[in-house]
Design brief:
heterodimer; A: alpha/beta; 5-stranded mixed sheet; 5 strands; B: mainly beta; Porin; 16-stranded antiparallel β-barrel; 6% helix; globular
Chain lengths: 139, 374
């Protein structure tokens, strides 16, 4: 009997943990420099920037496997990593564009975005500070 | 780290900058120069001993002995001189006969005029056809090589695609939501092995819906000059019309292209090529089938190019292939093709893309490739 209750308790706490984890997936903030004239961007504008279709922006990205990157890819760009790589390979190897600059982590991302008037990037919402401005939020 | 290794490139690129008189410090270049590369390791074999596919006997071509023909390596250098001016080039090395040949595949400067227009000048990759601009980059398409009936530069092929041209190109594009419309207007000249194409000019129009559906129409024309080497070609007009459709949507992958080539009064000057590829993505696997065909007509009495029979022919290839993206940025491909010539009587029909008439009317080709981008 006792083992059964213990088992149930364990199961419940495991389920609770799962629930908390799913709630813990934070929003992703699309950011520009705090000095930028831009105050907001639409989802389509963010997508266009990362596909090199809006030349006003220099997109910056986190490495493959990063959770914020996965969110951007699935919720904004709507492509798999291999489709995204294929898309950019066509542009690069026909001399029609430079792919998004890859930075190692969120703090380098913030520094890179803060220092450039044309750069656009993204970080976990919890890491936003006053060096950057949030122009779009991926929920 | 990767960029630092290529710091030696900075002086040569600085030289270019001095031409446009924009002072840039050396440190800036590590941020402004992007280097990307691609590699294809290819092995192909047919069941024919003496009829090399896409090549001359004993020099190149695919036979039962097997070959690494198709193996190639490329490096792209992109130097952003300032917000508007970019200099780009591609160094390309490919197997040619028994050795490898490296050249500047293309290299041009690109001036961004405004949000909708870019002007390019230099040596530019030919823009007609769905994959012409990145025809050497195996990673971006499903096949080991794009269908040969359309894309081969073998003398027996449709001649629907070219190498690079020297000249200028104006790129125009406009985006509305997920729709992008673009136009490429170009002019210049093309220097090929034996033929110089002068007065080369054309236009490529494209409508693209979020890379899911692409429709392309292209036209270009030129005048052929051989300096009297192939007299019937001299002064003849060469024009190409191309139509293409590509779908990559909900796991369905489709490529379809058609091209019509006309070479004025030149005896061996008319060709029509087409292919259809159907594929279905299952996770990291892409099985696909392709049927491609080439018809070459003879307008007058032939026999002009001494080493190749210049008779009309039809060639049809059916290919079954599998692409496996087994790691990020690298794909493994296997293919089996059946190549069919309309006649194996050398007195009646040409040899298609073979160097000699094959023994059988159906030739089997096997291919294996690794394609990577880095």
């Amino acid at each position: 009997m006792l083992t059964k209750i213990r088992y149930l308790k364990l199961l419940l706490s495991a389920m609770a943990l799962l629930f908390i984890n799913s709630q813990a997936i934070a929003d992703v903030a699309v950011i520009v420099s705090a000095d930028s004239d831009i105050s907001s961007m639409s989802k389509a504008e963010v997508k266009a920037a990362y596909l090199g279709k809006n030349k006003k922006f220099f997109p910056t990205t986190l490495p493959k496997g990063d959770e914020a990157r996965d969110n951007l890819m699935s919720k904004v760009i709507g492509k798999s990593e291999s489709q995204f790589q294929s898309y950019w390979s066509k542009k690069i190897f026909s001399g029609k564009g430079i792919p998004p600059k890859v930075v190692d982590n969120a703090s380098i991302m913030k520094k890179s975005i803060a220092g450039s008037s044309k750069a656009v990037g993204y970080i976990d919402s919890s890491q936003v500070d006053d060096s950057v401005k949030v122009v779009y939020t991926i929920e | 780290m990767k960029k630092n290794r290529f710091n030696y490139l900075a002086p040569s690129i600085c030289l270019c900058t001095s031409l446009v008189a924009i002072p840039v410090s050396a440190e800036d270049w590590t941020d402004r120069v992007t280097i990307k590369g691609f590699l294809s390791a290819v092995y192909q074999q047919t069941n024919q001993d003496d009829a090399p596919y896409e090549g001359e006997l004993l020099e190149s071509g695919i036979t039962s002995a097997g070959t690494t023909q198709g193996t190639q390596f490329g490096l792209n250098i992109n130097a952003q001189v300032n917000d508007r001016l970019t200099i780009v080039g591609q160094l390309h090395s490919a197997r040619d006969g028994e050795g490898y040949v490296t050249n500047l595949e293309w290299g041009f400067l690109s001036l961004n005029l405004n949000e909708n227009f870019d002007l390019r000048a230099g040596r530019i990759k030919f823009p007609g056809g769905l994959v012409s601009e990145y025809v050497n980059v195996g990673y971006v398409y499903p096949w080991i090589q794009p269908p040969r009936e359309m894309y081969s530069e073998d003398i027996g092929a449709a001649q629907a695609v070219h190498e690079s041209f020297s000249g200028v190109s104006l790129l125009a594009s406009t985006t509305s939501g997920d729709l992008t419309y673009s136009a490429n207007i170009f002019t210049g000249e093309i220097a090929e092995d034996e033929v110089l194409r002068t007065d080369f000019a054309g236009i490529t129009l494209e409508a693209n819906w979020d890379e899911k559906v692409t429709i392309q129409a292209a036209y270009n024309q030129s005048t052929m000059e051989t300096g009297g080497v192939i007299l019937p070609m001299d002064g003849q007009r060469h024009d190409i019309v191309q139509l293409a459709l590509k779908i990559d949507w909900n796991n369905i992958v489709t490529y379809a292209e058609w091209a019509d080539v006309n070479m004025g009064d030149f005896a061996f000057g008319e060709a029509e090529a087409a292919y259809v590829t159907l594929g279905y993505r299952i996770g990291n696997f892409l099985p696909h089938v392709t049927v491609s065909t080439l018809e070459k007509a003879q307008k007058a009495t032939g026999g002009i190019m001494a080493d190749r029979p210049m008779l009309p022919y039809e060639q049809t290839t059916s290919t079954l292939g599998l692409r496996w993206d087994f790691m990020p940025d690298i794909a493994l491909k296997v293919e089996v093709s059946s190549i069919e010539l309309d006649s194996i009587d050398p007195n009646v029909a040409g040899v298609g893309l073979f160097g000699e008439m094959p023994d059988d009317d159906r030739v089997t080709r096997y291919g294996l490739a690794l394609d990577a981008v880095f």
